[in-house]
């Protein structure tokens, strides 16, 4: 008996080893799912389609029943049902365990499909290339497929389809079209064919058209796009004519109009081009139609316009870069945004490490790959990587890369410069960018390092640990400044090939100011000069037109001013090779420019009597030139005309003016002016015309009138010849005569109205000769002028005005007389002689109660009075209702009082100005303008530290009023309270007791350092249960309700403590389970029953039933936390070792009690030779009845293996079958 048991044991070990070591034999059926028997034809089922393995053996089943003889890899199914195939190995031992398809393939009877019919449109003979529409007759069944055969080697699918037939030739060609209906793998009979007749078009194919660029153009990157195709046609003009081609219609773009080309313009020797260039990247379909006698042939050529590719992409948070888990440094998801250009691009992406090698720890996610346009990377490692993009099209390829930093923080540091001379650089968020890289900045982690030139210092309270320091660089040289900081993932200085942000600060030496040998020069207008400064070798100079500011007009070593027309001072600074400019005053260089001689004119043309000397020729005072040496004059004359030859004039000809001699003929004169070395200037030309003499006459009508009164006509004696001109003078009887106004060319003259004494005489003119009559004087009494009075006034009612003063009048006939007038009606009417002494030059009004207007009249001779301007003395009522009131009589120290309100005043002119005043002395003395805004109706005092008095003055024109006084007292602030402890500790969800002491008063507790709501009022404050560390603040309040200037902080540290009792577990009855409490230093487990020690961290439990254990853990601070774990206990199975299946109704099956608690159990039974005679899985729903393959087994001992689940140890033993 020992030997068979040993063999059984070895066999079971072998079986278990084999099952666990090899995969099941492959088993699948094609087609899968459901297949259909169509029109009685069988369905071919194939097992493991495409697999050839002689070791595999097949057995087909229908509806779970073995099909005798069906042992091939294929099977023709003619009957409906569910077909399966069992596949096993022919080898011994088997190469793979037996396997049966589950589910199999269901075979059903397919549909009975009716033979279809169809129509087409248009009918009749159609041209090659024209679309014809085909449609099934009858309703469209969306479940059916309609498969078309067009008879030209092409097929189609659909209820309604379009198809164009192609045929080249002079005759017609027919095509037979048919269709079948398909559904569920079955097909109907083919429809009756229908014939389509096609008229041939010209033989014109795409290969007959060529392009100089082979239909593909590459544009250099960043170049503008303007492409014109250059198309040739292989069909000659003669061949086109023979083929009946009359022309070509070309549509260069789909939305463009067709253009007609004659065959003589489109052939192997003549090309056509698009008039409007292709201006964007893309594919342009060019449609060309060969026009035939009946039908046309259209081809479409694709013209590709591409551009040299330009790689480009960007990565920007938050969309382009984000953490997979916001609380974890990695993984980080990076999504580049593509910006590559060029058209028709393909992509190749890669990620490189710092050594330029493919990086590890990076994967493509979201169904993207390294050839996606927009890949999505998942970086699982921290560090710096290079994302590389290669874009390629038919024009070439281009590569770009971009650094991406994962997890670590990064600093970008910038600074202006280089700097000239000592400088202080203030680093701020404008030149320092701290990138936390999706993380959080670690406070206090900033580290600034300065190397290179010595002497740099941190200033203005900043240090090497400041986030934004200010650094002074005092010496010439180069400084290296770097900074690093940390986030929760690491420090910016830890990143390979990057390190901390670094910048070079260069401080250059400031050059000395330039030296110019002379301070200036003098030149004539339109001349130039050169300025040549000197200074250290290698320097250049900046030339300005201003002493400060402005932009340099040149940067050079020697500067030519160019032609100048005005005096100019240039200013020069030194510019060192490193770009530093000298400081201080710029070096001046004055260029004095003598302007061109101007204002050289002479006057005037004259007519003189023959034998008379002309009048003096006057020349203007010239301007320009070097007038420090004076001007040189030369007068010239000509008797040949204004453009004739000029000679030196006779007589004194070198003066500014010139007196010509007696002339007998017409003569022209001009003047030359010279100055220093500047060129001569020639004046205008004047002409003196010489004419014969004439005779004069006499006039009468001398009289005296007032100014602006009409004058009686003046009478002249009769004349026989000449032109008359009356002339007048307001100077004297012998000088100042000019042509008289009004009509002045008649024998008599009417002067009209005159404003001053005037002398008249009559002239007779003939050519250049003139003779005058005697002089007649008209005396005019002058009007009074300069009659003004001062000044407008405003005053409060009942006040006497200031005296009114008048100017000293001019004109008139002495002595002058005065009359002052007044009006209470207005400035233009109601005037009467003023009260009191009103006939003097000035006037002193008496007190008035209403607004009054005054004016002064001046009388001269018998003429009407002359009135002055009007002055207004405005009378306003006194100011009233000037009161103030304050809502507070006392405030706390360093507190802004509430606004002091002022009443709305009345009186005055209705417009008011205010002045608030304050005094810290008393209610009656030492008032001064109050601080802050003190000119409004109301007033808000500033912070007060001592008792202060306030008052308001209201001003309206010349009226004013001072209010009563408001006093505000100042109370002292209490000192900040003292707390018993600045920091206390408590457990999670526990309270804390905080105690404050001080000089007295009350105490108020808050959650904020300033503001907020009062939590509690009192010296001892018990907080609510806390779940996190919290800082509370307490302030003192004295009897005046003044609050301490600061609050005292108390921090309550909350100990966050938890315990984990582990995962719930299921065990079999009688087994033990070790419980583990994670967290704490002391433990107490409940219930204690079934535990070996309820006070240890890892007690061993042996529960007899399902039990929930609760553990209470305590921290070192005494804080407690609880958790629970449930141990589910499944009863053990009860196995009997004998049964008697003898059909007596007792012990007919081998019962395993409680196995129903193990639904995944497996039961296997073997005979003594190792043959498996029974198996049940999952579970044991039908107990073993002692049979094998339906036959009773003999009396014997059998061996079982029971696996209750995948984790428990198998149960083995034997059972005896008794008959």
From TrEMBL:
Domain PKD: 132-178
Highest taxon in the source lineage: Bacteria
Signal peptide: 1-23
Cross-referenced SMART domains: PKD
PROSITE patterns according to UniProt: PKD (PS50093)
Family annotation (Gene3D superfamilies): Immunoglobulins
UniProtKB keywords: Signal
Protein name per Swiss-Prot or TrEMBL: Gliding motility-associated C-terminal domain-containing protein
């Amino acid at each position: 008996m020992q030997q068979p048991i040993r063999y059984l044991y070895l066999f079971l070990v072998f079986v278990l080893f084999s099952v666990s070591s090899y995969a099941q034999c492959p088993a699948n059926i094609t087609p899968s799912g459901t297949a259909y028997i169509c029109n009685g034809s069988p369905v071919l089922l194939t097992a493991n389609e495409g697999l050839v393995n002689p070791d595999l053996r097949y057995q087909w089943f229908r509806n779970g029943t073995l099909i005798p003889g069906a042992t091939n890899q294929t099977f023709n199914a003619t009957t409906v049902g569910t077909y399966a195939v069992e596949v096993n190995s022919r080898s011994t031992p088997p190469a793979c365990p037996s396997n049966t398809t589950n589910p199999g393939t269901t075979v059903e009877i397919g549909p009975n499909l009716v033979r279809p019919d169809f129509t087409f449109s248009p009918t009749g003979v159609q041209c090659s290339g024209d679309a014809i529409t085909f449609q099934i007759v009858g309703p469209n069944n969306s479940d059916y497929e309609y498969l078309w055969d067009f008879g030209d080697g092409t097929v189609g699918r659909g209820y309604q389809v379009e198809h164009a037939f192609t045929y080249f030739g002079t005759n017609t060609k027919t095509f037979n079209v048919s269709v079948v209906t398909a559904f569920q793998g079955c097909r109907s009979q083919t429809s009756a064919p229908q014939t389509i007749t096609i008229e041939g078009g010209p033989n014109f194919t795409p290969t007959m058209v060529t392009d100089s660029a082979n239909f593909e153009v590459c544009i250099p990157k960043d170049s503008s796009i303007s492409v014109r195709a250059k198309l040739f046609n292989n069909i000659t003009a003669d061949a086109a004519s023979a083929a009946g081609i009359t022309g070509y219609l070309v549509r260069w773009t789909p939305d463009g109009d067709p253009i007609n080309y004659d065959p003589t313009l489109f052939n192997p020797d003549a090309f056509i081009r698009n008039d409007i260039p292709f201006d964007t990247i893309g594919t342009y379909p060019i449609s060309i139609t060969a026009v035939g006698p009946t039908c046309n042939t259209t081809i479409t050529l694709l013209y590709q316009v591409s551009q040299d590719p330009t790689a480009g992409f960007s990565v920007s948070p938050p969309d382009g870069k984000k953490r997979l888990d916001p609380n974890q440094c990695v993984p980080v998801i990076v999504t580049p945004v593509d910006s590559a250009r060029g058209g028709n691009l393909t992509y190749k992406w890669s990620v490189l490490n710092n050594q330029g090698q493919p990086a590890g720890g990076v994967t493509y996610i979201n169904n993207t790959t390294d050839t996606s346009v927009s890949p999505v990377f998942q970086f699982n490692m921290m560090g710096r990587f290079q994302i590389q993009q290669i874009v390629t099209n038919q024009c070439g390829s281009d590569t770009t890369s971009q650094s991406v930093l994962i997890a670590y923080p990064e600093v970008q540091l910038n600074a202006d410069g280089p700097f000239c001379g000592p400088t202080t650089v203030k680093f701020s968020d404008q030149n320092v960018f701290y990138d936390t890289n999706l993380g959080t900045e670690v406070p206090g982690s900033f580290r600034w390092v300065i190397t290179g030139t010595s002497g740099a210092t941190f200033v203005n309270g900043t240090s090497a640990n400041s986030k934004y320091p200010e650094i002074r660089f005092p010496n010439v040289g180069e400084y290296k400044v770097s900074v690093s900081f940390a986030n929760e993932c690491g420090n910016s200085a830890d990143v390979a090939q990057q390190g901390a942000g670094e910048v070079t600060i260069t401080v250059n030496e400031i050059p000395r100011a330039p030296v110019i040998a002379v301070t200036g020069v003098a030149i004539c207008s339109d001349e130039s000069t050169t300025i040549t400064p000197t200074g250290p070798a290698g320097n250049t100079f900046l030339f300005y037109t201003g002493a400060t500011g402005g932009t340099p007009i040149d940067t050079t070593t020697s500067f030519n001013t160019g032609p100048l027309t005005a005096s100019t001072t240039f200013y020069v600074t030194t510019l060192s090779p490193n770009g530093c400019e000298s400081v201080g005053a710029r070096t001046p260089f004055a260029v004095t420019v003598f302007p061109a001689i101007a204002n050289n004119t002479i006057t005037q043309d004259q007519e003189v009597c023959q034998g008379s000397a002309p009048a003096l020729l006057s020349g203007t005072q010239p301007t320009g030139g070097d007038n420090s040496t004076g001007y040189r004059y030369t007068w010239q004359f000509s008797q040949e005309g204004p453009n004739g030859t000029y000679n030196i004039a006779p007589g004194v000809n070198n003066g500014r003016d010139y007196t010509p001699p007696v002339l007998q003929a017409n003569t022209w004169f001009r003047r030359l002016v010279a100055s220093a070395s500047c060129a001569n200037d020639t004046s205008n030309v004047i002409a003196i015309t010489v004419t014969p003499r004439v005779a004069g006459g006499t006039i009468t009508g001398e009289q005296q009138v007032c100014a602006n009164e009409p004058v009686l006509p003046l009478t002249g004696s009769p004349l026989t010849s000449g032109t008359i001109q009356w002339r007048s003078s307001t100077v004297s009887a012998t000088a100042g005569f000019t042509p008289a106004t009004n009509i002045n060319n008649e024998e008599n003259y009417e002067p009209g109205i005159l404003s001053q004494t005037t002398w008249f005489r009559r002239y007779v003119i003939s050519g250049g000769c003139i003779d005058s009559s005697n002089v007649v004087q008209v005396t005019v009494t002058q009007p009074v002028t300069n009659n003004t009075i001062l000044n407008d006034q405003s005053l409060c009612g009942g006040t006497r005005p200031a005296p009114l003063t008048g100017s000293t009048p001019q004109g008139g006939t002495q002595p002058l007389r005065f009359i002052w007038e007044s009006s209470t009606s207005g400035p233009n009417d109601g005037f009467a002689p003023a009260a009191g002494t009103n006939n003097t030059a000035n006037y002193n009004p008496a007190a008035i109660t209403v607004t009054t207007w005054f004016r002064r009249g001046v009388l001269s001779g018998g003429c009407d009075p002359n009135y002055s301007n009007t002055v207004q003395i405005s009378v306003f009522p006194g100011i009233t209702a000037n009161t103030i009131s304050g809502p507070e009589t006392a405030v706390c120290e360093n507190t802004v009082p509430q606004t002091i309100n002022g009443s709305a005043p009345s009186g005055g002119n209705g417009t008011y100005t205010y002045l608030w005043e304050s005094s810290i002395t008393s209610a009656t003395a030492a008032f001064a303008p109050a601080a802050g805004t003190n000119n409004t109706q109301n007033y808000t005092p500033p912070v007060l530290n001592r008792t202060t008095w306030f008052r308001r003055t209201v001003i309206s024109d010349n009226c004013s009023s001072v209010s009563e006084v408001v006093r505000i007292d100042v109370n002292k602030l209490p000192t900040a309270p003292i707390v018993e402890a600045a920091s206390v500790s408590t457990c999670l969800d526990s309270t804390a007791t905080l105690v404050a002491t001080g000089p007295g008063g009350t105490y108020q507790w808050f959650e904020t350092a300033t503001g907020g709501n009062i939590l509690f009022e009192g010296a001892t404050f018990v907080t609510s249960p806390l779940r996190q560390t919290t800082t509370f603040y307490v302030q003192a309040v004295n009897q005046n309700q003044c609050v301490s200037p600061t609050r005292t902080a108390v921090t309550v540290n909350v100990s966050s403590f938890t315990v984990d009792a582990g995962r719930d577990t299921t065990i079999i009855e009688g087994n033990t389970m070790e419980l583990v409490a994670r967290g704490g230093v002391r433990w107490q487990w409940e219930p204690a029953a079934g535990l070996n020690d309820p006070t240890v961290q890892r007690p061993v439990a042996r529960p007899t039933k399902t039990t929930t254990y609760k553990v209470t853990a305590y921290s070192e601070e005494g804080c407690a936390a609880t958790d629970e774990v449930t141990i589910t206990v499944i009863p053990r199975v009860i196995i009997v070792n004998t049964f008697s299946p003898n059909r007596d109704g007792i012990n007919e099956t081998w019962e395993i009690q409680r196995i129903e608690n193990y639904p995944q159990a497996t039961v296997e039974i073997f005979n003594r030779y190792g043959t498996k005679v029974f198996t049940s899985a999952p579970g044991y729903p039908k107990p073993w009845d002692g049979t094998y393959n339906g036959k009773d087994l003999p009396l014997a001992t059998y061996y079982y293996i029971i696996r209750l689940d995948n984790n428990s140890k198998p149960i083995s033993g034997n059972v005896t079958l008794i008959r």
